[in-house]
Amino acid sequence: MILSQRNQDLSTFSSNLLPRHVAIIMDGNGRWARRRGKLRIVGHQAGFNAVRRAVHFAVNYRFDALTLYAFSSENWKRPDKEIDSLMQLFSHALNNEIDVLHKNNIKLRIIGDINRFSGELQKNIHRSEKLTSNNSGLTLNIAANYGGRWDIIQGVKQLATQVQQGILTPNQIDEDALCKCICMHELAPVDLVIRTGGEHRISNFLLWQIAYAELFFTDVLWPDFNDVIFKRAVNTFMKRERRFGNSASI
Ligand code: IPE
Ligand code: IPE
Ligand code: MG
């Protein structure tokens, strides 16, 4: 299936205000399953269908980038059984979806510390990233074993190495220098963060990158996330006045 690159509804939005980069904390899979008397993994599987819908939406609305929080640095605290099934789902999704992503000109990137994943999964990730690296459509970032604090620390380590090698002096370390070492620095800034599942927190997702992002929270559980809610989030974003520290216009 080739996703439609043309957006039928684009005229309903004033396109200069559309977000370019949307990030989503996909929460609520477990509760979705529990409400149906099913195992948590069933919720994660249903969540995968919601990922497909969200990617389709992002392509249709011509976002530059969509960043999805799939597994946090802290999610290793979960029972082994759940982690194993999440890893299997991740591998399965990579194997089965990569051709569709590639055919749709989508560039896939995994952000996070992938060293903790199995060798096979790491190989698969590298292969998928390489295959799609020259694509010019949507950039799809999957945050896996990602933590906002980890991201900042890995950036600081890069800077420390540069100082050690004499490439940089400590005085030259400024926002710009650190920014260049943080995940996704080459992409449009994150405009909008959506969190499903009813919690009003960031849970160590992007920290540096969302300094001025707009936040949208919904009680909808991730497997139920659809175009109607995505559109509501985008519409809400478009009504906000982003001031970046400036004085209010009214
Ligand atoms: C989000 O859903 C998916 C992951 C964190 C992997 P949860 O599994 O956290 O679902 P709830 O919050 O327990 O309902
Ligand atoms: C955040 O959800 C992580 C992902 C969606 C991958 P969690 O379910 O892990 O967050 P907390 O524990 O409720 O803060
Ligand atoms: Mg959760």
Distinctive features:
250 residues; alpha/beta; Undecaprenyl pyrophosphate synthetase; 6-stranded parallel beta sheet; disordered N terminus; binds magnesium ion
Structure, described:
With 250 residues, the protein is α/β, with parallel strands linked by helices. The chain has one domain (17-238): Decaprenyl diphosphate synthase-like (Undecaprenyl pyrophosphate synthetase). It is 40% helix and 14% strand. It has a six-stranded parallel sheet, with helices on both faces. α4 links the parallel β3 and β4. The protein is globular, with a radius of gyration of 19 Å. The termini are far apart. Mean pLDDT is 94; it is low at 1-8. One 3-methylbut-3-enyl trihydrogen diphosphate binds next to β2. One 3-methylbut-3-enyl trihydrogen diphosphate is lined by residues 26-31, 71, 75, 86, 197.
Structural class: alpha/beta
Looking at the structure, the CATH topology is Undecaprenyl pyrophosphate synthetase
The strand count comes to 6
**Roughly how much helix do the residues carry, as a percent range?**
40-55%
User: What sequence of helices (H) and strands (E) makes up the elements?
Assistant: EHHEHEHEHHEEH
| Number of helical stretches of at least 4 residues | 7
Question: Which band does the percent of strand residues land in?
Answer: 5-15%
Contiguous uncertain segments of 5+ residues: 1-8
The major beta sheet can be summarized as:
6 strands, parallel
Overall pLDDT, averaged? 94
Number of domains: 1
Rg value: 19 Å
| CATH architecture term | 3-Layer(aba) Sandwich
Q: Can you identify the CATH superfamily?
A: Decaprenyl diphosphate synthase-like
Major sheet: order of its strands? 3-4-2-1-5-6
Enzyme class: transferase
Binding site for substrate: 28-32, 40, 44, 72-74, 76, 78, 195, 201-203
Protein name: Ditrans,polycis-undecaprenyl-diphosphate synthase ((2E,6E)-farnesyl-diphosphate specific)
Subunit structure: Homodimer.
